[in-house]
Design brief:
This protein folds into two domains: 237 residues, Helix Hairpins, CATH 1.10.287; 131 residues, Glucose Permease (Domain IIA) (Distorted Sandwich), CATH 2.70.70.10. It is of the alpha+beta class and 388 residues long. The N terminus is likely disordered. 58% of the residues lie in helices and 18% in strands.
């Protein structure tokens, strides 16, 4: 949003537009033209720096997005590593459980084998005395002993086969578990290798972003530098123009200011003259660039001299305001009006009604604030106004 033009600069700019000597406008000196060229150059360089800054910021946004994508990929790979580690732990746990179960079965068979072996020894010892082995009180005991002898000789072979099968299963379990663990570990190593690659890409991207950030900082510095240069050239131009206006401004005297009338009824009192004063609202000492006349609301305000309406509208501190351009040129200002009765570009004659008195803007009550300016500078209005 553009800041409103200050009233002082407004008067300088307006005066510059309407002062001329022959074919050449006053103020168009070599110094002013050079300052304008420098201002335009600063404006162009500022635009170029802003374009570079925009590109760098776009690159930075792309790098940030790439880093975010890489971070997401790293998170996925880390999740895969965690899953691979869990798979290794599960394979180890499964192998351990099956080894324990197999060991328990083997131990049971070995216990049974030992019992049968002990029984076989007993049978063998008894066989040394066949009569005692088969000797019994009844036939059932003899049959049972015969069956045991047969079982011992037959089961020994079965137990050996079972033990061999279990040992083979145990070895297969070990091989399967080892293979599962090796596969999981290889998978983990592959994932970790991929993660290292991602880390290297992240490092590269971060290095790229550092470079982009440096470009952004340089571009921002360039924008600020050329903005400042543009601002300084604008001030220089204003000062040069103001100086030219001061040189060409008419010497405001009673004679040169002939034809002015009071802009308000002669009975209105001057409540604050031109010059330094304590501001009635701010309470600080500062320059008062005009004369204040007391009035009642809607009291008529007249054009002090034949003129063209340069401005009719509202200015923040001055409220509703009229600015007239008279011959010379001399500018007059009428502020804090309650109502405007003219518009920009109108021609008015001396004494024409241009507005009604009021208290708009920064004001403590109904009054007319009246200014006279020439060459962009405020002059004491009482120089040109008739004596009261």
């Amino acid at each position: 949003m553009k800041k409103p033009l200050s009233l002082a600069l407004f008067f300088i700019a307006v005066s510059f537009l309407f002062i001329s000597t022959g074919e050449r406008a006053i103020g168009e000196t070599d110094s002013i033209r050079e300052a304008r060229e420098k201002k335009q150059d600063a404006s162009n360089r500022r635009a170029d720096a802003a374009a570079v800054l925009e590109l760098a910021e776009a690159d930075d946004a792309a790098v940030v997005q790439a880093l975010n994508d890489l971070d997401a990929a790293v998170a996925m790979e880390e999740a895969k590593i965690a899953a691979a580690r869990q798979a290794i732990e599960a394979a180890e746990a499964e192998a351990t459980l099956r080894w324990v179960e197999t060991d328990q079965v083997v131990k049971g068979i070995e216990d049974l084998r030992k019992r049968l072996r002990d029984l076989a020894v007993d049978v063998y010892v008894s066989s040394m005395n066949p009569g005692s082995f088969f000797e019994s009180d009844d036939m059932s005991s003899a049959v049972r002993r015969s069956a045991i002898l047969s079982a011992v000789s037959g089961d020994q072979g079965d137990l050996v086969d079972q033990l061999r099968a279990l040992e083979a299963d145990k070895e297969e379990i070990a091989r399967s578990a080892d293979q599962a663990i090796r596969d999981a570990e290889r998978n983990q190593l592959e994932i970790e290798a991929g993660l290292l690659l991602l880390d290297s890409r992240i490092t590269e991207r971060e290095r790229t972003r550092d470079e982009v950030q440096e470009r952004i900082e340089l571009a921002e510095a360039d924008v600020a530098e050329w903005k400042r240069e543009q601002y300084l050239m604008a001030i220089l131009i204003d000062n040069l123009i103001a100086e030219e206006l001061r040189k060409s401004a008419p010497d405001l005297t009673k004679e040169s200011g002939q034809g002015f009338i009071l802009p308000i009824d002669g009975s209105s009192k001057i409540t604050s003259p031109f010059g330094m004063r304590i501001h009635p609202i701010l309470g600080v000492k500062r320059m008062h660039n005009g004369v204040d006349f007391d009035c009642v609301k809607n009291q008529p305000i007249w054009a002090a001299k034949t003129a063209k309406v340069l401005f009719a509208g509202t200015k923040s501190l001055y409220g509703k305001t009229v600015i007239l351009e008279h011959e010379g040129p001399v500018l007059t200002l009428y502020a804090h009006l309650n109502e405007l009765l003219v518009s920009d570009g109108m021609e008015v004659a001396t004494g024409d009604l241009i507005g009604k008195c009021g208290t708009t803007g920064r004001s403590t009550g109904n009054h007319l604030h009246f200014e006279v300016r020439t060459g962009g500078e405020a002059k004491d209005p009482m120089i040109v106004l008739p004596k009261r």
